[in-house]
Write a structure and sequence with these properties.
mainly beta, ten-stranded antiparallel beta sheet, eight-stranded antiparallel beta sheet, 1 helix, 35 strands
Length: 424
């Protein structure tokens, strides 16, 4: 069967070859664009198994010692020093990886995000997900699944809780009801008016599962964490073992998991030294142009103002706040709050199609008790993220202000990436 239209058959063979080559390049371009949307960028390499450890006040490089995790003494052992776990914020395992492709992104009730493909399951109440970065297939009770997206990442955490099951189709339709099965071929959902519907994955964009029961929590004496793997999965659980070749987690949702050394990318400890502002409630919100009642781009937790992942340049942030100028968010400073930190910039969604440097530009300002404590210059869409650090001791109110830049308010989609307070 010919790949070319009938009228091309009379063309010279050289012209036909050119047309065929152009068609293949176009098809390849579409495939590459889709692949890049699904797969995260590869991790940069550092030779010799060195890791980066982010502490409260500084970052350092080193190598994990054997039996690096001392749970009883709450210490992390490197080859040349010992660190209190309470001071450790993140560990980055910097090994060169090629990110495997994945078909579906699955979010669980505890914020876990897994990338992989569904396999047939003998139990209709359980998903079987093959996760390449875990080098295994895991069973997940359907009651702990909250969202499944095809071809794009789900948010690791979200404040939106579904009250009923639903399927969003490729034709922008939403079917609500009761999900009966989810499998490799598609989803079966019972609709009150239409009855039982079988939808193949080719017609599905997103699946949401109602949160009927709260997710089980980890015991208070465990070490809660998120582990990031090279396919973009983020797995929540209790850290039980860590050394140069071994990292194990225990979770009431996914069970015990060992993260292969070749696929582990990062480890974030969830101890009491960090308070993310997206987990706190602002005591005052002012938004608008300059401040007005009608404003379609309201601030969002852990997402940009369009509802997508927070991304500044090549950096993606799991936590943070997405806003649009002009916006002022004020938070109460609590006893024990010491330092505010963030990485700020224009979200990738603020890049104009014509690369106009005069739009997508803002100024970031931090106020303490109404007085200016930090001010950036003009930050535009072409700029990398800007680190912000402001001491909080002795103050009661913290205001994050984004002002309009040189292009007024056009495409001023600004991110407070990783906005957090470090505590005593």
């Amino acid at each position: 069967m010919s790949l070319l239209p009938k009228h091309t058959k009379s063309l010279p063979s050289f012209s036909v070859a050119l047309l065929l080559a152009a068609a293949l390049i176009t098809w390849a371009g579409h495939w590459e664009e889709r692949r890049l949307e699904a797969a995260p960028p590869p991790v940069s390499a550092v030779a010799g198994g060195e890791i980066e450890v982010e502490l409260l006040e500084r970052a350092l490089s080193g190598r994990l010692a054997a039996n690096a995790l001392d749970i009883e003494k709450k210490q992390l052992r490197l080859e040349d020093r010992t660190l209190p776990l309470r001071d450790v914020l993140r560990i980055r395992f910097r090994k060169a990886q090629t990110a495997p492709r994945w078909l579906l992104s699955v979010r669980l009730a505890d914020g876990t995000r897994l990338h992989g493909e569904l396999l047939p399951s003998d139990d209709p109440d359980k998903l079987r997900l093959k996760v390449s970065s875990l080098e295994k297939t895991i069973g997940i009770p359907l009651e702990w699944v909250r969202e499944i997206a095809k071809g794009v990442e789900v948010a690791p955490l979200t404040t939106v809780v579904a009250t009923e099951d639903s399927v969003e189709t490729t034709r922008n339709a939403t079917i609500s009801g009761v999900i009966e099965t989810i499998g490799p071929n598609g989803v079966t959902i019972e609709d009150a008016a239409l009855g039982s519907l079988e939808l193949p994955w080719a017609q599905i964009e997103r699946v949401r599962v109602a949160a009927l029961d709260p997710a089980p929590t980890l015991p208070i004496d465990r070490l809660p964490c998120f582990v990031e793997t090279d396919d973009g999965s983020r797995i929540h659980g209790a850290l039980t073992a860590l050394d140069p070749t071994l990292l194990t987690l225990d979770s009431p949702l996914t069970g015990k998991l060992s993260i292969p050394e070749a696929h582990r990318v990062g480890l974030e400890l969830l101890l009491d030294r960090i308070a993310y502002l997206s987990d706190r409630e602002p005591i005052e919100v002012e938004e608008g142009i300059p401040f007005s009642e009608y404003f379609p781009w309201t601030w969002r937790r852990d997402r940009n103002v369009l509802g997508n992942s927070l991304r500044i340049g090549r950096e993606t942030f799991r936590k943070g706040i997405g806003v649009h100028s002009k916006c002022a968010l004020t938070y109460g400073i609590e006893p024990g709050d010491e330092v505010f930190r963030a990485k700020v910039g224009i979200d990738v969604a603020g890049r104009p199609v014509d690369d106009n440097p005069r739009v997508g530009s803002v100024r970031f300002v931090v106020l303490l008790d109404g007085e200016e404590a930090y001010r950036s210059g003009d930050v535009g869409w072409a700029d990398t993220s800007v680190p912000v650090q402001v001491p909080l001791t002795g103050h009661t109110r913290l205001t994050l202000l984004v002002e309009m830049g040189i292009g007024h308010h056009v495409l001023d989609r600004a991110d407070w990436g990783d906005a957090r307070i470090l505590r005593k």
